[in-house]
Amino acid sequence: MITFPNAKINLGLHITSRRPDGYHNLETVFYPVPLDEALEAIPAERGRTEKCRLVVQGNPLPGSNDPQDNLVAQAYRLLDAEYDLPPIDAYLLKRIPSEAGLGGGSADAAFMLRLLNDLFALGLTDERLEILASRLGADCAFFVRNRPTYAEGIGNVFSPVTLPPLAGYGVCIVKPDERVSTRAAFARVVPRQPQEPLRNVVALPVEQWRDRLTNDFEQSVFPQFPAIAQVKDELYARGALYASMSGSGSAVYGLFAPEAVMPEEDFGPGTQVFTGVLR
After folding, report:
1. Which residues are catalytic?
2. Fewest CB atoms within 10 A around its CB: which of 55, 202, 256, 260?
3. Residues 242-264: pLDDT tens digits?
């Protein structure tokens, strides 16, 4: 069985307060985008010692090279602890850049839970899958339903959101060579209440988002990584109606009118560029 985990972008992101547990409260809108990976799971011979044999190819991952540290393997172990799953061979083709604010690892984890639920007919509801996914990461649960969502708390409290019709808009995602540590980005940001409620701003036409729909991380990341700020300026120069860093970066995306010509791929050495159409 095969599935295709997709990336997300953040439409606005405000860090509103620091929590007693050291984490931060935030508000944002998660929006799925058509930048996909491929994840396949095949039942293996029962009784094999290694229950989840994972092969990862494609974009390199930071940190450990042990596939068992990957969130896909962690998702398998989470379900296996409760349901004693049969052994599988799993294959993950990475396309979503890491350390980009695009949720690639979280998507892999949630899609693995969904895949295993279908493959072994576990009968888990979306609500149950969201609870399980939240154990793997704050935003993992978003990818269970995988639809535009208003998120609060640490990015794990979800509710519906009203947006202008975005289907058909072009999206260009640019990932510079720079790497932004999420921990460092949070350390530099100053929590504050936004001047305008995020729900009100995202309900406006896209043409009104510029300078009103903001990502608080840009204030701390851009001075430290001017190349990331330059990508945002370049997207506007190439006709984007709205551009923003996604999450804590380092990817920056631009939204383009449905009839607009999408930018060419040349954004400088070391950059990765992905284009698509919002669904």
Report:
1. 8, 139
2. 55
3. 999 999 999 999 999 999 999 87
